[in-house]
Inverse folding.
């Protein structure tokens, strides 16, 4: 059904022309006090199409606690967050969405350059300073075109900026994998200690039951084995959360009957 332009409200217009900056959106997610698993679900919303959109929103609300609920409520309340990060929720043509900028880095850099001319200006002063800035930019580009001399030592063309962006993303991803590897090492150590403590407690209980069945020492041993099993179960549960995480260089230890990349 065709909709006339006069019948569109402000948010309908936004869904046809604007996108949110992915860099700022992901930065907001990093600052949210939720688990890494919930953050991963939040990041998955930045996409062309999402296979399980509604289920992911419910998972964020249920698993994210108060911070997750507040984050989701804020995005729903503003009415434009989701159409600004997911093409399927917007009315922008797919091809335009794919070739368009997903960040506001260009605008941010222009703001920085313009602000160097002065801030808190009067209307006329701001107009004149902006006009002067535009003239200087035009002259700089003309010199670059005529002589091949760039305005600075740093390359600012699309190829150079894209290369820097890819390197930056690779570094961040590598650091994230290193953090996950350290978590796996800690959980492996905790699980190994819990497994050894469980075996010792079990051996102690069997020994006391054979020699002093029903004694106070045997009852204390029974309580000890219960505590050891609880600690062991908790360690296994924590290790299960690390399945499919990390770089793959550190094997994840799990009980032989579980699923994972290693066993104890």
């Amino acid at each position: 059904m065709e909709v006339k332009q006069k019948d569109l409200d402000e948010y309908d217009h936004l869904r046809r022309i604007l996108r949110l900056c992915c860099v700022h959106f992901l930065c907001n997610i990093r600052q949210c006090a939720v688990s890494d698993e919930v953050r991963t679900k939040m990041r998955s919303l930045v996409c062309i199409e999402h296979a399980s959109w509604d289920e992911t929103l419910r998972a964020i609300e249920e698993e994210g606690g108060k911070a997750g609920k507040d984050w989701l409520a804020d995005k729903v309340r503003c009415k434009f967050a989701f159409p600004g990060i997911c093409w399927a929720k917007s009315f922008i043509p797919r091809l335009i969405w794919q070739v368009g900028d997903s960040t506001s880095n260009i605008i941010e850099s222009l703001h920085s350059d313009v602000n160097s001319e002065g801030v808190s200006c009067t209307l006329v002063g701001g107009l004149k300073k902006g006009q002067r800035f535009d003239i200087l930019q035009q002259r700089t580009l003309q010199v670059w075109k005529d002589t091949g001399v760039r305005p600075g030592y740093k390359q600012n063309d699309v190829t150079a900026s894209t290369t820097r962006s890819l390197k930056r993303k690779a570094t961040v991803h590598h650091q994230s994998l290193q953090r996950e590897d350290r978590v796996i090492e800690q959980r492996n150590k905790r699980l190994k200690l819990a497994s050894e403590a469980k075996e010792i407690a079990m051996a102690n209980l069997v020994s006391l039951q054979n020699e002093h069945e029903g004694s106070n020492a045997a009852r204390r041993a029974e309580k000890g084995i219960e505590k050891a099993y609880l600690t062991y179960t908790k360690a296994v549960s924590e290790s299960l959360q690390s399945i499919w995480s990390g770089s793959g260089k550190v094997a994840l230890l799990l009980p032989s009957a579980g699923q994972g990349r290693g066993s104890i």
The CA atoms of residues 33 and 72 lie 13 Å apart. Residues 258-262 have pLDDT under 50 and may be disordered. The first helix runs from residue 10 to 17.
